[in-house]
Specification:
Length: about 120
């Protein structure tokens, strides 16, 4: 894996179709940091810290712990602590969200879990 200045994390098997300003964290990778992402953040590894993105996607193997803020958040993995979705929070059938949660609209698929203090904006 390598890091490209400008906030794109990628490995050698990724194509270059992802727009600049994206963060891609693959399975098996652990990141401890603060990330300001102008576009989409896709997490399939472990992220500890804070993410502020336009869109956040936590994939099946993804675990995010810390403060997250995005207009649109979709979760198929785990998202913990402080979660702020200014527009939509979508929890898939394998998704788990816990902590202090705020959202514009909320969608939970059968099997998805949400636990904590919730507030609709």
């Amino acid at each position: 894996m390598y890091i490209q200045i400008g906030g794109i994390f990628r490995n050698q098997t990724m194509n270059d179709n992802e727009p600049k300003g994206a963060l891609l964290l693959f399975s098996g990778v652990i990141a401890l940091c603060v990330a300001f992402v102008h576009g989409r953040a896709v997490i399939n590894g472990k992220f500890h810290g804070a993410i502020d993105a336009k869109e956040l996607e936590v994939q099946t193997d993804g675990v995010v712990t810390g403060t997250t803020q995005a207009a649109a958040i979709s979760v198929a993995g785990q998202l913990n602590d402080s979660v702020h979705a200014t527009k939509t929070l979508v929890i898939g059938s394998t998704g788990q969200v816990s902590g202090d949660i705020s959202y514009g609209t909320l969608e939970i698929s059968k099997g998805g879990e949400i636990l904590g203090k919730m507030k609709q904006l």
